[in-house]
Amino acid sequence: MNKWAHKVLIVLILVLSIALSACNSEMNGPDASADPQDDLLTTAESANESAETTPAPTSPTDRHPLGAMQILPNHPDTSAFEPVESENWSRWPAVSALPNRLQIDMETLIGREKNQRALDGTVVILDPGHGGKDPGAIVTAEDGTEVFEKTLNLEIAQKIKTELEALGARVIMTRTNDNWISLYQRVVVGANASLEQWLTAGVVNEVELPWINPILDNMQVIYNLNEDTLESGGRGMFQGIGANEMVRQLFDAERETPNIIFISVHCNSSPETITESHGTKLYYCTNLSVFGDEHAFLMNPGEEIADVEPIDPSYSRYDDEARIALATSIHDQIITRLPSLSNENDPVLLTGNYAFIRETALDSVLLECGYMNNPQDLAILRDPQSQQLLAEGVAEAVYQFFCHRNSIIINPDLPNEPTSANPMDDHQPADLSPN
């Protein structure tokens, strides 16, 4: 057994261990907390995941549901390693800097019928926002009940998980109970899912991947610290503006795993007690929106500049079209099932600079299901049947995204540059680094 096979075997053993630990956590109730010292490679499994539903390759003869993943050599031109000056700042060239490519046959997904294996081979990271000491928005319902956003986020995400698994997707939850999880630990869960595929393919193809170990080590530090502040070091290699060389390598690796997507589930609110703002909104990052936000900040840094140092070149290889398609699909499928969450008066698809969709090159979106301080929206968000319809809409959207993307109708006027969120939104982009 070579050292890569040994490493993946250890990963599989850890996965089984975390599954057993998570089951115990579920039995202990919603306040049970995961140990932040657990190996990050085990966090890529949701609490309810079983070996029967997500088998991992154990020998070169096993095949991924999308076909055998091939690691191929990549020989970027030397210019790929030098930033390009742009508008008084620099950007990384829009080519991969990795010495390898990971070939995944996404064509096998196209046109699949909708059944229990339709999404076989896909991975969906579901991120229920907030949790633990961070309740998110808090409102008092008309019946006098105090409602916490973190609770609604988890309830909705769990229903989405069930619907996606019914279509064959592997679903990874960033949290399955009332835990507090840092923004950057959430990013690590998505990164790990991508790196896990690289490691497994490395064994099958007998290819060494020396660049992956420093990234894994850094991911472990971020996961163990589970902090967002600059002083804690919990941002790890993501500290600062732009992407350093290691972050760029991670992002390039994630771009090679388009079968993995990231959906952060939230509910909106505004400063006033009751708002007329309403409806479902989706946020996404594009290359231009991130560059524009960061460039604008650098031109007028104010007193916060120390909080975002070092300043590195901007990343240029996000898949803009895929991110916009995913956001569009989710929005359209939700309002098809819940028309009262439609809003024809305000923008509903917006760019937003949020850590959990910025610090990843996986196709990712932030879903704001509705406004908690709008009584009509809140009634929908609290209603189990409406939550179920919302979950079915997200699952259908993911199915359309992977299997029938050409059927998603994209508005050509959707923003690609930075857009201001509704000034009443509670998830306004804050300082670029910690948000």
Walk me through this protein's architecture.
The protein is an alpha/beta fold. The protein has one domain: Aminopeptidase. The protein is built from 10 helices and 12 strands. Strand 6 (138-140) and strand 7 form a beta hairpin. Helix 1 crosses helix 3, helix 2 (149-166) crosses helix 10 (384-403) and helix 7 (320-337) runs antiparallel to helix 10 (384-403). Residues 10-62 and 420-435 have low confidence and may be disordered.
List the helices and strands and how they pair.
Layout: H1 3-27, E1 70-73, E2 84-86, E3 89-91, E4 100-103, E5 123-128, E6 138-140, E7 146-148, H2 149-166, E8 170-173, H3 183-205, H4 212-225, H5 245-255, E9 260-268, E10 281-284, H6 287-299, H7 320-337, E11 349-351, H8 355-358, E12 363-371, H9 375-382, H10 384-403
Parallel strand pairs: 5-8, 5-9, 9-12, 10-11
Antiparallel strand pairs: 1-4, 2-3, 6-7, 10-12
